[in-house]
Amino acid sequence: MSSGHVPDTPADNLTEQVEGDSKKQELPAVPDMDVSEDTGFTVKIQAPGTEPTDFQVSPLAMVQEIKQVLMDREETCRRTCFSLQLNGITLDNFAHLRSIPGLQEGSILRVVEEPYNFREVRIHLRHIRDLLKSLDLTDGYNGVEGSSPSFLSCVTEECQEEDSKPKRRGDGLKQMSCSPPDHILPGSKERLLVPLLPHTNSGKSSGCLKVLTMSSWNPPPGNRKMHGDLMYLNVVTMEDRQFSITASSRGFYVNQSTTYSFNPKPANPSVLSHALLDLLSHISPVFKKNFSALLKRRYARSTHPFERIATPFQVFSWTAPALDHTMDCVRAEDVSSFCLGYEEHVPALARDWNEELQTTRELPRKTVTDRLMRDRAVFKANSDFVSTATRGAMAVVDGNVMPINPSEEPRQQMFIWSNIVFSLGFDVRDQYRDLGGEAAAHAAPVLDLNGVRAYWAVDQEGLFLIGTVVIDYRGYRVTAQTIVPGILERDQEQSVVYGSIDFGKTVVSDDRYLELLDKPSKKLRVQRHLVLNKDDTAVELRSSVEHKGIVGNDGRRYILDLLFTFPPDLNFLPVEGEDLNPVCQQLGFPKLHPHRLVCLRQELIDAFVEHREMQKGMESQDTKICVCLNMNITNIFIHLTGVRFPKESTEDIQKQKQQLKDAAVFLISNQIAAFTKSCLDHTSMPLDGVTLTEALHQHGINIRYLGTVLEYIEKIPQKERLDHVYVSLITRCAKHLFKTYLLAVEPSALSASVSHFLNCVLSSFAEARVIQQNDKLASRRRSRRRRSRASVGSAVTSCSNLTPTDLWGAIKAEAQEYYHYSLPCGSVEEAVDKCRLQRITLLREIAIKTGIQILLREYHFDSEHKTLFTEEDILNIFPIVKHISPRSSDALYLLRCGQSRVQQGCLKEGCELISQALGLFTNVYGALHQDVCICLRLLGRIHYILGDYAEALSHQQRAVLISERVLGIEHPNTIQEYKHLGLYCFAVGQPVTALRLLYRARYLMLLVCGEDHPEMALLDSKIGLVLHSVMACDLSLKFLENALVLTSKYQGPSSLKLAQSHHLLAKVHESKGDFRAALTHEKERYGIYRKQVGEAHEKTQESSEYLKHLTHQAVILQKTMNWIYKTGSDTNIPPFNVSAVHVNRDLEKLRTDAQKTSQLTQNNVEFVEDLQGPFEEHGTSQAIAQED
């Protein structure tokens, strides 16, 4: 999921100066913030036949949102067609509560049933379908309707009863309840896939109906419409009774029609129900019983509303169990009403996406309330547009949309559907011939999207951007864009009033555009400059000449084609006569890339500016002016010779070139080293390809530098610590090849071809071949179709002849050509041995990057005599969607203010500000969003440090649910959330639940990156400590010993964290009575402390005292054993003084230490020793703020 840069908000000017005297400062607050405007209040909701119930609302909420919540509540979930009335007046569904006169604390809103129309009946049926499938994860696995799976309740529900039982049980029972499955234990080589999707008790709901579908008697004839008939339904109950039901304006009733006889009159006895569920409960006792049970499970404590709410952006699962395909009338009607490629689906009834997106951006933004309403409208319109664009792009690739230029070649065709224009990422008409051809055409849409994201983040009033989404699906790259009003009716030459349409030969400018681009150019560090027109007149620009300004028929000024928003990367642009810095030349730069559309990232430019400021000691403003770039310099390096500059600009052009060369060497010499250092000192610890990409981008490093990063890593002694970088390079090369591979595959052979490709990448079976079971069903006519399609450009035979040797050879060649890196492995076996990778990690990364969904089962990767994947294992191919994700500027500002307060040690004030940010985020995005998750995580950690463990647990539980739903069940962030939740469960006295959560986190880490990772050392320490607290010492030792090995590898033999690991092991050995082993480990701890901080330090003294204690106990034990050997009697043996497990004391110590921010930052030893608390790796309020 893509996200834009942080918008220009008051937070951008936030200073984070912390005075040494900790003087009380005035709380930061958003300007013109009226807290009362967002203060919730309570109203009463009264449904027919029920007593009024209290309902908490926000003044910024709309009436429609209250209705949606009521439709999800158990008491009122049966109704959909109703209105809310206040004092007998019907409320407008789209009115905000604050604008309703007379609505106040304690007001009674009455639910009034309304007559149905055809649309309302469809909404009612969809709602019933959602209720009946609310415990079924099918939609989540299929990636539809904003559904995605979540398993937190499944992980915790098994141990709720155990935690509620009396705590005094035998050690044996405790040992059994705390033992993990064998594949989770340290040292296990099993990497199972099935546990990724745990089976839940609520899983599939009990059958309520066999069939609910549209009747073939639809639509009602004219005479029945006069009686109010809207639709006819067929129902088969669990008792095998068939009913024909009429949906009328008054409600639902059973009619007398049969399969072959139409009789719309009401059946006898006649029962009219406003809600279909009430009618079904009346005619079917089994439905009534099972539906009541379903509702009880749906609203049980183990399930959370966050598990049912739709996500704003669809999340796709890369694996799913075998699913039963059941009859679904709503799904079937959705497909039939999609009307793809039909003339009746003209834009007349479709949403005008361009008008929606631009109108929302034009909303007022003067006050906080105005900005909140605007942010909410922008986010909702954008998320709906992304969803529609994704569906349309899939339909285009599937061949369900007619092109607007059907006579052109397939690669040149364009499509319009639902007021969105779709184009394919191919080099049509040789537009990119000089820039890299097809490779450049494939990269251009993403670069354009990055430019849209950059200008969107600046949010310049009066400057408009078209909605843009880039979708990768089945090997095709599809760009979906909104339509500028009038652009299809005019020639491009007539439309453009700013920029150039012929690569800089003819350039036009506009005073209004220069004014509108003033703020974005400063923000993006673009220099005002002059270029020459074809008549040699100087034209002023504030962007690249490729940026086109178009005034639409709606009067709005649009800026398009933002391909060259960022400066070129000279390390990959060889140009004769332009020599790079010797540092770059020694590393082989400039290198030839497959295309010339290579740009530097905005993060690199910002870091470069900061570096220049520190180097030259200049003031910030002067330096910014110094490093502003003439974006048309790009044209010099990519051989677009149309752009010419005035003679007086020659000197400035040379300076600009030198700045670009300096930026290129800065990336090589500074940023790659800084990234590697951050990984080695664990400032950033990527677990998978997604987090690795994020870490690289944070340092301004493009993915094309992966090979350079690996070459740098191989030169350092600790290279084995960064083996996971190989995974990303290999899987990205495989993705590039897979894209080309899929283009040559016909739809009927997709499953077989995809499974064959995966076999060639991951299987040890050398004779893998395409086995398509359905080939024997092909008719002669179908064979002719296949041959005709192959003649267009498909090469199916080449796919079937692909071998593992061929594919891995292609992967090595792609690594050399694209990343300029010589991959040391030519097969999956060599990748496992030389690069220390695991195949299930490669499978996950490939599936996520390509959109493949595979069947959930155990795959035996080491089998050399059997094909690993079959076509039945390939369930689906999902799109990979890149888009803009608007963010709430005021909420971000409050969040930063809260983090600043936490950094200063003002935890309560910071907590209050972050809580306000959470409220604003929820108002803008809804409950499910990554920013909401960040706030909940921060609040949970602050409450934990303040000692309010129950509140910390509540916040963290929601954070886990949101992370699972929005990011994915095994995303690295989700793993971190599980770890924090396990900590808080342990703090509130639920050790069994804590262990299950930590085991889940460990399993996910094993799947994502394997056991050999620095994060695993910390996780194993946590698990070992919890096991020690319940006296499962033998099991605790397994995890702590593994943590010791990993800590020694990643932290070094003299690390203070290694000393702490030795101490934890000493504690467990002491609890077992093994004083010899305890002394050995504590001596190691003492030696490290004495070497690192000296004899006089309190930690060294503490270790010395503990050594004396262990020695004393060991002496007592030896005397006792000698007495037993001498006398043969074990009577009168004094008890050993074994240290008890002080869980509460450790928690209190962590909470106290965490509040001493200033002391901890001054003393590195105490900072590291926060690990002495049960889990918290940072343990300081400063670390809380900095983590996110």
Automatic annotation (TrEMBL):
Q: Which Gene3D superfamilies match?
A: Hypothetical protein (hspc210) (3.30.2280.10), Tetratricopeptide repeat domain (1.25.40.10)
Q: Quick one: signal sequence residues?
A: none
Cited InterPro entries: CLU-central, CLU_dom, CLU_N, CLU_prot, GSKIP_dom, GSKIP_dom_sf, TPR-like_helical_dom_sf
Gene Ontology molecular function: mRNA binding
- Listed Basic and acidic residues bias regions: 162-172
Q: For this UniProt entry, what is the primary localization, expressed as one broad class?
A: cytoplasm
Region Disordered: list its residue ranges: 1-35, 162-186
For this UniProt record, give its keywords in alphabetical order, as a comma-separated list.
Cytoplasm, RNA-binding
Tell where it localizes. Cytoplasm; Cytoplasmic granule
Pfam families in the record: CLU (PF13236), CLU_N (PF15044), eIF3_p135 (PF12807), GSKIP_dom (PF05303), TPR_12 (PF13424)
Q: Which GO terms describe its biological process?
A: intracellular distribution of mitochondria; mitochondrion organization
CDD domains (UniProt xref): CLU-central (cd15466)
Residue ranges annotated for the Clu domain, each copy included: 331-573
The Gene Ontology CC terms held by the record are: cytoplasm
Similarity comment text for this entry: Belongs to the CLU family.
Q: What does this protein do?
A: mRNA-binding protein involved in proper cytoplasmic distribution of mitochondria. Specifically binds mRNAs of nuclear-encoded mitochondrial proteins in the cytoplasm and regulates transport or translation of these transcripts close to mitochondria, playing a role in mitochondrial biogenesis.
Q: What is this protein called?
A: Clustered mitochondria protein homolog
- Upper lineage: Eukaryota, Metazoa, Chordata, Craniata, Vertebrata
Query: What gene does the UniProt entry assign to this protein?
Result: LOC109045377
